Amino acid sequence: MTDTTTALAPTDAVSLHASVIAWFDEHARDLPWRRPEAGAWGVMVSEFMLQQTPVSRVLPVYEQWLARWPRPADLAAEAPGEAVRAWGRLGYPRRALRLHGAAQAIAERHGGDVPSEHAQLLALPGIGEYTAAAVASFAYGQRHTVLDTNVRRVFARAASGIQYPPTATTAAERRLARTLLPDDQETAARWAAASMELGALVCTARNEDCARCPIAGQCAWRLAGKPAHEGAARRGQTYAGTDRQVRGKLLAVLRASTAPVPQSALDGVWHEPVQRARALDGLVADGLVEPLEDGTYQLPS
């Protein structure tokens, strides 16, 4: 793949930082995980929930989750199935199991406090490079490159002059992110949050609002006349009729019951038996559903 990284003069990068952070100071959403009282655990929970899920869907579940489990040890003390139950319809419920596993590790290895060191965060189960960097940056104000979809899109347009970043994060993108990262920790952490918010609210995937963008005058893509994306067509994910939909219906039955569920109750959620069985087998294989010896099913204990 062609390296589309654009070299920016230090003065240009500093100008980007100042403009985007000033915009963020005025327009940032008041989200509960950004408040001081959220702490590192609140930031971590939000990062797990926000993966591939819009803020509007996350907010009510996040509030309920933190009210029930205000510290990692509170979640760790419960069965993993309770995490799956509380996850509700956020989607991708394996995230609930991973968050539960991370909470257990925090309780066992770190005295119940979310570690501040990037390497320790990365060593927690279910935490990858992005989440470790995000928690270290947003919760502890550290200097890390935080590359989510929104940030990658802002960098692709503003610095590389292309409409969309590659499907998967590339080495060139990481180099660019490191080039753009401010030197001091406080500014770097603010830049990480601000560039992410800019992608979420202004430099969106569709219908970008360049008139509201604080760096429109420096944006390589806009200045080049907004050339169209040259890669494969970007298609939204389908849901209706997929195994994901069937899995969601099966889990909804199990979440709604505090007792084990018979096979007959699960058979009623989907008309096609082969797909239904495949979806159920997948849930069992993923550890999201536990089959019992009497032929019933429950959330993992």
From TrEMBL:
It catalyses: Hydrolyzes free adenine bases from 7,8-dihydro-8-oxoguanine:adenine mismatched double-stranded DNA, leaving an apurinic site. The lineage of its organism: Bacteria, Bacillati, Actinomycetota, Actinomycetes, Kitasatosporales. It holds the Pfam family HHH. SMART domains: ENDO3c. PROSITE patterns: ENDONUCLEASE_III_2. Its EC number is 3.2.2.31. InterPro entries: DNA_glycosylase, Endonuclease-III-like_CS2, Endonuclease3_FeS-loop_motif, HhH-GPD_domain, HhH_base_excis_C, HhH_motif, MIG/MutY. Its cofactor is [4Fe-4S] cluster. PANTHER family: ADENINE DNA GLYCOSYLASE. Residues 49-201 form the HhH-GPD domain. It comes from the Bacteria. This is Adenine DNA glycosylase. Belongs to the Nth/MutY family. Keywords: 4Fe-4S, DNA damage, DNA repair, Glycosidase, Hydrolase, Iron, Iron-sulfur, Metal-binding.
